[in-house]
Structure to design on (499 residues):
């Protein structure tokens, strides 16, 4: 795994890829990425079933010291969590897997969360609503199976 | 007493009329939108947005429930509705419709928790249920073990740490290209498969807590499919075996955690509820295992028609709130997508 100390810089100017060898490592990568967030960002996750999107979200939630366990929002589409973080107050976990229409998500009040500087929004299956996402403050995170079946390659782009 | 209940927490629109005489339930109607042949006023186009479909369906479904019950709207004594949890937009349709009826007809309003209503659905059989009881709720959105002190006091003692079990069925069906909803398709295919052909790990089964995890099981199926593809094995032929092996693993976890909960908490009954409780393998194994270890325990499993989302269970649940005089205020009642037990 690469050194993530200059992550903010990487995110601003580059695309970068991290390799994870386990679900725990996927969480660790998410935590380190979370360290560079200041609130108001949107993390747009993409990747097939079983690549670790929920695992990534769990890592982010741990960094934000969320007490509740992060469970799949597939059926309710959107779950907000209160954090114990100083600056970031809310984590909104969205899952577009079951989504048939982008409108549906905005009817759930997505806009209010997207424009809130104290909220981090993390969206699983974000490729399904790509066109509806704002131009700014979006970090694209793609997860893919790696060389062996336990490996994942995680690519960041903004 | 007659109750009209409305349930719109997710995809289904449902209305039911329940009559209660001397403490016995007499279900007069239980209409679920997918069963109603509503004329295609929109040229046969089915709107994709769940809530929009709810708006279209809610009035015809209520009308149908009254017609089927052979009563008049003015015969209703109480109006009940699902307050949550669920999709906020869908929930709001039911809540607003019910509030309107309650205000117009000047009859009390009752708000109901959808999750616990799944368990209380077992009262529709009119069998005497002794409390305290243990409840297992299995659906697309929930996997919960609940301690039930009485009809209105519930406490969660175990829950999924990631995906709900119904969601795991759906996602495995997706991995195997089987279509939606995954539960019925997989359990049907599993009948012709060998549940021991593939050994899937039973997630969290050896952990002493009462929590579940199904995300890893889904990933295990994904890995298996990839391995089979690499070895150029015909996946189509293996699908019944994969389905049976996956189902066996999921059922095993649910049953063993239920038994663990029963050993930890002294209860008189066991109640099952939720969409996945339609799964025959789960029904059979729960009955068999609980019966052999806890001979005095009464087991309640809902009739198939009350396993999925339906308004009859909301009506039953509201009856117990009426008994406790817990009414909602039509002016202030709002849907709550994250309503807790």
């Amino acid at each position: 795994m690469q050194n993530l100390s200059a992550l903010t810089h990487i995110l601003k100017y580059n695309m970068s890829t991290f390799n994870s060898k386990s679900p725990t490592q996927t969480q660790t990568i998410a935590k380190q990425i979370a360290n560079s967030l200041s609130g108001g960002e949107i993390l747009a996750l993409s990747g097939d079933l079983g690549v670790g999107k929920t695992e990534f979200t769990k890592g982010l939630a741990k960094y934000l010291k969320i007490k509740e366990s992060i469970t799949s929002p597939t059926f309710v589409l959107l779950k907000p969590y209160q954090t114990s973080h100083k600056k970031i107050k809310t984590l909104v976990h969205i899952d577009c897997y079951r989504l048939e229409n982008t409108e549906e998500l905005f009817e759930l009040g997505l806009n209010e969360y997207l424009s809130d500087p104290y909220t981090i929004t993390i969206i699983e299956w974000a490729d399904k609503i790509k066109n509806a996402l704002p131009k700014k403050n979006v970090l694209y995170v793609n997860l893919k199976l790696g060389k062996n079946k336990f490996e994942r390659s995680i690519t960041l782009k903004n | 007493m007659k109750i009209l209940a409305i349930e719109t927490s997710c995809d289904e629109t449902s209305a039911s009329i329940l009559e209660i005489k001397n403490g016995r339930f007499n279900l007069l109607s239980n209409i679920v939108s997918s069963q109603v042949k509503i004329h295609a006023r929109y040229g046969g186009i089915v709107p994709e947005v769940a809530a929009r479909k709810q708006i279209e369906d809610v009035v015809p479904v209520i009308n149908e429930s009254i017609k089927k019950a052979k009563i008049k709207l003015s015969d209703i004594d109480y109006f009940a509705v699902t307050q949550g949890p669920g999709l906020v937009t869908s929930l709001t349709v039911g809540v607003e419709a019910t509030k309107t009826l309650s205000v117009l007809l000047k009859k009390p309003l009752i708000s109901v928790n959808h999750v616990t209503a799944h368990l209380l659905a077992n009262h529709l059989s009119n069998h005497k249920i002794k409390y305290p009881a243990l409840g297992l709720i299995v659906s697309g959105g929930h996997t919960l073990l609940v301690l039930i002190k009485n009809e209105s006091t519930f406490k969660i003692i175990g829950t999924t740490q990631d995906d709900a079990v119904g969601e795991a069925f759906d996602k495995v069906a997706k991995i195997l290209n089987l279509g939606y909803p995954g539960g019925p398709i997989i359990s049907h295919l599993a009948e012709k498969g060998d549940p021991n052909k593939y050994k899937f790990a039973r997630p969290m089964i050896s952990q002493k807590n009462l929590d579940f995890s199904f995300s890893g099981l889904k990933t295990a199926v994904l890995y298996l499919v990839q391995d089979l593809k690499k070895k150029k094995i015909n996946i189509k032929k293996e699908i019944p075996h994969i389905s049976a092996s996956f189902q066996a693993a999921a059922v095993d976890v649910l049953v063993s955690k239920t038994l663990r909960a029963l050993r930890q908490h002294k209860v008189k009954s066991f109640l099952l509820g939720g969409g996945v409780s339609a799964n025959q393998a789960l029904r059979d194994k729960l009955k068999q295992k609980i019966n052999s270890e806890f001979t005095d325990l009464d087991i309640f499993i809902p009739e198939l028609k009350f396993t999925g989302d339906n308004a009859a269970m909301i009506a039953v649940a509201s009856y117990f709130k009426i008994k406790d005089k817990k009414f909602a205020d039509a002016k202030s009642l709002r849907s709550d997508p994250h309503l807790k037990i």
